[in-house]
Amino acid sequence: MAKSIPLGIKLLPSIGGTDRNVTYKIFILILTFFCYTSYHLSRKPISIVKSVLHRKNCSIPLLPTDKVKFDNSTDCDWAPFNHGDFATLLGSLDLAYLFAYAVGMFSSGHIAERMNLRHFLSLGMITSGILTAAFGAGYFLGIHMLWYYILVQVIGGLVQSTGWPSVVTCVGNWYGKGKRGLIMGIWNSHTSVGNILGSLIAGIWVNHAWGWSFVVPGIIIASLGVVVFFFLVPEPSTVGCNKPVHHGDEDGEEAQSLIKKREDEHKEDEAISLYRALLIPGVIEFSLCLFFAKLVSYTFLFWLPKYISYKTSYDAEVAGDLSTLFDVGGIVGGIIAGLVSDFTRGRASTCVVMLTLAAPMMFVYNEYGSINYAHSVGLLLVCGFFVNGPYALITTAVSADLGTHKSLQGNSKALATVTAIIDGTGSIGAAIGPLLTGVISPTGWNNVFWMLIAADVFAMVFLIRLVTKEIHMWRLTGCTREIEDVTVNIQNTL
Known about the structure:
Layout: H1 7-11, H2 20-43, H3 45-53, H4 86-114, H5 117-140, H6 146-160, H7 163-174, H8 180-187, H9 189-205, H10 212-231, H11 252-260, H12 274-278, H13 283-311, H14 316-344, H15 347-368, H16 373-403, H17 415-440, H18 445-461, H19 464-493
């Protein structure tokens, strides 16, 4: 497949000299950061708007435009979410989006590896913008049919799955393993930044004209999709830059023997199958861990503003603004997780430690987070730190490590597939969590938090084998250093 230079890059002044690689690396990191920021910015409004589709009380009436006529049973709810089963219906919106996203994720990795990544990503972003705006159009057109919102969520989930495999592949193509945990930990803050901006933007209109809460984010992501089409450079070779070196790891020989039984020769540009990707050591464990970790994270993403509104006297706008603190904590958690895992060379161990601390923090937040504003702020920051840290690490540095595993012999086409498997499995959990919340929340929010704590424990269990291997590796490394020190002392004595 011919690799053409994007038109926008051709029009820019040429970059030369020794700083050429560095300049392009920084440019790609910034561009993909804004790309995925816009993806989360466009999927966040639904969590903010839930609070006005069905309100705890009607002190602030929801007024439509002049030409829209309500058929609601109250003056402040939006049909069809104006009846007793509103929580289940709101949960079905999350399920429709997230299940479609999970299904799309498994196929998007394959597609991304077989077509121009720049075209694939820009098309996905523009289409995502159209679908996001279409949900908001329901307000202006006075649409009260559940099937319309479900359909928009399903198609929107499918096209949003174009984002993650594409941006991770781009960054993985440009960066080696050296400080990948730290770099991708900082870069992965786009998830939380997108959630924060999405909450703030949606909050501007949520109490008055909630349709704009979707239309404006839709315009933003579609506009950035156009920028991607003209400026994204997915691979270094396209602009004559050097390809990063990916170092091997201790599991290379294990996977190598399994793969060579089925395929003796392997071309560098050949896309791999899902089955072959599953043979890479760690893919299955981290995928199952992310299933439960993402279940917890996305339950907070889609239901936290609604939970805050229920537990406190804050209106939808204030609850949405307050919920952004969870993502602020998540930004710091993702960076620290990447830094620690780089230093210790223990990705799984870092995840387990943070997951272990996340469980009691969720219990504490549920018990004491609604006492006053200060408690909410402090506990949301800490809770977001521990909940989102492992999720951020697995979806970035871990996925990139496994997608450039030694067993792949430098195959540059494996990263999107590996990323899609891990995040696709996690997305199934992300679909189940909000759905269960919609079903369980009418029985009491305490039950929801017990469900989240149980999911957190399961996430830890699936990493036990990998943690054991990392501890064994540390012991071997320590023994090796002791032997080297003894040898040096003997040589100095002689």
